[in-house]
Write a structure and sequence with these properties.
- By secondary structure, the protein is α+β, with helices and mostly antiparallel strands.
- The protein has 5 domains: 58 residues, no CATH class; 230 residues, Up-down Bundle (Rhopdopsin 7-helix transmembrane proteins); 98 residues, 2-Layer Sandwich (Beta-Lactamase), CATH 3.30.450.20; 59 residues; 147 residues, 2-Layer Sandwich (Heat Shock Protein 90), CATH 3.30.565.10.
- 52% of the residues lie in helices and 17% in strands.
- The protein has a 6-stranded antiparallel beta sheet with strand order 9-8-7-12-11-10.
- Helix 2 runs parallel beside helix 10, helix 3 packs antiparallel against helix 4 and helix 18 packs antiparallel against helix 20.
- The longest helix is centred in the C-terminal third of the chain and has 38 residues.
């Protein structure tokens, strides 16, 4: 067992196993409790005031000689303090970027480094046993926090913040917290260390002690969690190529100096086992982190953006997709975007969005369209989706481009076909109806006259269908804005029109529950209302049908008014309404007319809701949105 000796406030270990004698006084031994005795076993007396003053100025060293800092000691202290100052600078740098993925957790790691370096550097100059014990406890606790904080940073930086809220990470956080409690109460149980004693080296107040099982576990746990965090960063380099290579590599390498320092100190190997080389080695750690933070703009773009984008099925989309970081730089493409922009080389990323499309994100989304040159370019509609990590932190966004060439070509084709069919239909059916009516007047055979009338009625139905389509197209193409509408006046106009067309019919109206004017598109709403009334009158079984129009203010705050059209007819076949629910027709399932389709289209244009139910009659309900 080493023998520990002290003269005044300084202690040292005698390596020959005997009490080394001083030329200026009798040597004294110091046990683990800090009690001092002479070499012959007598308790040491109090030093004289002159001796104490001298010892405060120049702590005595082995053999009673005055202990002065050696050059290596000065270097160690300076490097430790420099590491602490550098870490403090990085800490305030991280604070300004705390909203980005990772800085808040890395701030914890750097804060632990700052306190450790400054505390250990200053403690090497302090020979007071109580102060030195407290400083060593603080340094020990700081080391236990470094690894878990680095692991949390690795998870957040790579887009895995959901793991930070799991019970498993709660266990990770408990270890350094419990180490803090045990270190503060170590004098009671000795679970962290025992045998605390001074062992001066290079004129410094270095100490030796036996690290007990919990202390060993806490330090190894810190090293292990830091290693896992490093593996996450290495994985980002392999997954996303050169985009994050410099910063991730620098931060990963920065964990090696403290890991080596803690490992060497814990194993007690090397020429100076009492010296905790982790503190001076932190200067290298801080330098590498500084390069990653400042030199590579580490927190301006992060792997979290790409990880979240991948979860949205980036590669499964056939449309061109651009993944943006928070600074509006393109950090990834899908295959379609690479072909569209002719960008297959990944070494030039990130690429400013303005370089690709010529405008910034806000302008791009406001325009809604973008022209892209090149062989696979064209006109594209723009859709932007913000991206957030599992913790809700914004990490960028995705721009999806939809090729408008096919859509515009299809729209042009439909417009031409629609115009030609309507024009030809009207002209040809006018001819057919004219001959059918002539035949009905001139034929003597009753059966032939009825057949002529049937042709005429069918022709009129086709002409009516064409007119309805023409009316809707006219409204569809018109640029209209919502305006204040008097629904009472509109309902009166519709009732008057159908009294003339169907003189035997009754159209009853009730607007007593309407609070006042409603903001809507009047032409669109009137077309929908007219088609519902006409549909009810045409399909009535009675010779004098009755239709009720009721308008009331909506009870729901999200709606403005409710318009109901109720008839007394038989239920509309399920097939007629199901095609409206599915918004499509098939050869086997289709409606018999165009009226309800026109109503459905009109209500959709109004951003309203169209429903139907049967309650002694067909009840059609149009709910108009508020505003």
């Amino acid at each position: 067992m080493d023998h520990i000796y002290s003269i005044g406030l300084a202690s040292y270990t005698a390596t020959d196993g005997s009490a080394e004698r001083s030329c200026v006084g009798r040597a004294r031994s110091t046990d683990d409790r800090g009690a001092s005795t002479h070499a012959d076993g007598r308790l040491a007396g109090a030093a004289s005031p002159a001796t104490r003053d001298r010892d405060r100025r120049d702590p005595p060293g082995p053999g009673g000689s005055v202990m002065r800092l050696e050059l290596l000691g000065i270097v160690v202290v300076a490097a430790s303090l420099a590491g602490g100052v550098g870490a403090a600078y990085l800490l305030q740098y991280l604070h300004r970027r705390r909203s980005k993925p990772g800085p808040r957790w890395f701030s914890g790691n750097i804060a632990a480094v700052t306190v450790f370096c400054l505390c250990y550097g200053f403690s090497l100059l302090v020979f007071d046993p109580t102060v030195r014990r407290v400083a060593e406890a603080v340094s020990f606790v700081c080391v236990s926090f470094m690894g878990p904080f680095f692991l949390a940073f690795g998870l957040a930086y790579t887009g895995r913040t959901d793991f930070l809220r799991t019970p498993l990470f709660g266990v990770v956080a408990v270890v350094p917290l419990l180490t803090t409690v045990l270190a503060a109460t170590n004098s009671v149980h000795g679970l962290v260390w025992t045998g605390f004693r001074f062992a001066p080296t290079f004129g410094l107040a270095t100490v030796r002690y036996a690290v007990e099982p919990w202390g060993v576990f806490a330090l190894l746990f810190s090293i292990g969690t830091a290693a896992v965090g490093s593996l996450l960063l290495i994985g980002a380099v392999f997954s996303y190529g050169p985009l994050y290579r410099r910063e991730a590599t620098a931060v990963t390498l920065s964990t090696l100096p403290p890991t080596i320092g803690v490992s060497v100190w814990l194993a007690g190997v090397g020429p100076v086992p009492a010296l905790h080389l982790t503190a001076p080695l932190m200067l290298v750690h801080v330098a590498l982190d500084g390069y990653a933070f400042v030199g590579t703009h580490m927190f301006e773009t992060s792997p979290a953006t790409q990880r979240v984008a991948e979860r949205t099925g980036l590669d499964k989309l056939t449309e061109p997709v651009l993944v943006l970081d928070p600074r509006e730089n393109v950090v990834n493409f899908n295959d379609s975007a690479e072909r569209t922009f002719d960008r297959t080389d990944t070494t030039g990323r990130p690429i400013p969005l303005t370089t690709l499309v010529g405008v910034g994100l806000s302008t791009l989304t406001e325009m809604g369209e973008v022209e892209v040159g090149g062989r696979d370019g064209g006109t594209f509609a723009v859709s932007y989706t913000p991206l957030s990590d599992p913790g809700g932190n914004p990490v960028g966004g995705m721009v999806v481009l939809y090729d408008l060439r096919e859509e515009r070509q299809r729209k042009q084709q439909l417009s031409v076909l629609n115009r030609v069919l309507r024009h030809n239909l009207r002209n040809e059916m006018t001819v057919i109806n004219g001959y059918a009516e002539t035949l009905a007047r001139t034929l003597d055979d009753p059966d032939l006259r009825e057949q002529a009338h049937t042709i005429s009625r069918a022709g009129n139905r086709l002409l009516t269908t064409g007119e309805k389509v023409r009316d809707f197209d006219r409204i569809q193409e018109a640029v209209t804005r919502p305006e204040s509408v008097d629904l009472d006046a509109m309902v009166s106009q519709v009732r008057t029109r159908f009294r003339e067309t169907f003189p035997d019919a009754t159209v009853e109206t009730d607007v007593s529950a309407l609070g006042g004017p409603v903001r809507t598109r009047p032409a669109v709403l009137e077309l929908a209302l007219a088609n519902l009334v006409e549909n009810a009158l045409k399909h009535a079984d009675a010779a004098d049908p009755t239709v009720h129009i009721r308008v009331r203010t909506a009870a729901d705050a999200d709606a403005a008014a409710v318009v109901e059209v109720v008839d007394e007819n038989a239920p509309i076949p399920d097939g007629e309404m199901s095609v409206l629910d599915t918004a499509s027709e098939t050869p086997l399932e289709h409606g018999q007319g165009i009226g309800l389709w026109v109503v459905n289209w009109c209500v959709s244009k109004l951003n309203g809701e169209f429903t139907h139910r049967y309650d002694g009659g067909n009840r059609f309900v149009i709910t108009l949105p508020a505003g």
